[in-house]
Amino acid sequence: MLAQERFEKILELLRKEQSVSVSDLTRQLNTSESTIRRDLTALDKQGLLIKVHGGATAVKSVFALEEAVTLKSKKNLDEKRKIAQYAADLVSSNDFVYIDAGTTTEFMIDYLKEQDVTYVTNGIGHARKLMNAGFHVILIGGEIKAVTEAVVGDDALENLEKYNFTKGFFGTNGIDGDRGLTTPDLKEASVKRKALSHCREVYILADHSKFHQISSVKFGNIEDTIIITDQLKNKDFYHLTTIKEVF
Questions:
Q1: Domain residue ranges of the chain, discontinuous segments joined by +
Q2: Tens digits of per-residue pLDDT, 186-218?
Q3: By the number of CB atoms within 10 A of the CB, which of 195, 214, 228, 245 ranks highest?
Q4: Are strands 217-220 and 180-183 parallel, antiparallel or unpaired?
Q5: Where are the alpha helices (DSSP H) in 46-123?
Q6: Is 147 within 8 Å of 68 (Cβ atoms)?
Q7: How far apart are CA 59 and CA 214, in angstroms?
Q8: How far is the C-alpha of 106 from the C-alpha of 119, rounded, in Å?
Q9: What is d(CA 107, CA 88) in angstroms, rounded to the nearest whole number?
Q10: What would the pLDDT profile of 43-70 be if each residue is shown by its tens digit?
């Protein structure tokens, strides 16, 4: 079993049980105690769990579950549309753009105007919407994650390796000053991280509810991005990066 697969199973068990022992993990994952201890150390360093004597406990502030895209699309609609419209206006002629799977990034497609642009996405619905609007679109290949309609996995990572984007637009489940940009799923985080590293300019589209939130897996640093949000009452994040408020 690959390390990433073990990480996913360990985090999944923690979400269910809130604590796990080294002996239980050794038995359930059919591997050695030394391997499990190394895995717990690695996950602890990433802030994804708390390593304790004989095992690990869950980080209390992580989100337990990923919401389905149909549920997320109904939350904070006005804010998401304003953020999406602002983001769409940033796209220029001849750009090579990555659009991450997510509800706010999908709203962005409604406001795109530039036709002389290539759009690459890992969102199934995004690709269909871009195609129907007459844009040139590339859908990366890989495993489909049903709950978010995102393409993930090793094939997706390999696909992204060959691209260099002028701009990238990403969603996030959490923005925290200490833990950075986070999302619940390890595979989805890996795709976000890879795509983000291939973008000249990185924009995070996030309404106010995502701030001071921490999800399970970190995929990026706040200071490497520009955040587009609605009215932000707490100004704690302004010293970390450029933040564009739209309201």
A1: 3-58, 69-245
A2: 899 999 999 999 999 999 999 998 998 888 889
A3: 195
A4: antiparallel
A5: 69-72, 77-88, 103-108
A6: yes
A7: 9
A8: 12
A9: 9
A10: 988 778 888 888 998 875 545 345 545 4
Phi-psi region of 76 (alpha: psi -120 to 50; beta: other; left: phi over 0): left
Distance CA 224, CA 57 (A): 30
DSSP 120: E
Residue among 185, 170, 201 nearest 100 (CA): 170
- Closest by CA to 210, choosing from 197, 195, 225, is 225
CA-nearest of 130, 81, 125, 138 to 109 is 130
| Torsional sign, CA 81, 83, 89, 93 | negative
pTM: 0.74
Tokens 């149909």 sit at which residue? 70
Residue with tokens 């717990």: 40
The reply to whether domains 3-58 and 69-245 share a CATH topology is no
DSSP single-letter state for residue 196: H
Structure tokens at 209: 């509810």
Please identify which residue in the block is written with the tokens 């509800």: 103
CA distance 234 to 239: 12
Structure tokens at 20: 């796990």
Whole-angstrom distance, CA of residue 45 vs CA of residue 79: 34
Hey, what are 61's tokens? 């502030």
Give the neighbor-by-neighbor strand order of the sheet with 19-21.
19-21, 55-58, 49-52
Architecture of domain 69-245: 3-Layer(aba) Sandwich (3.40)
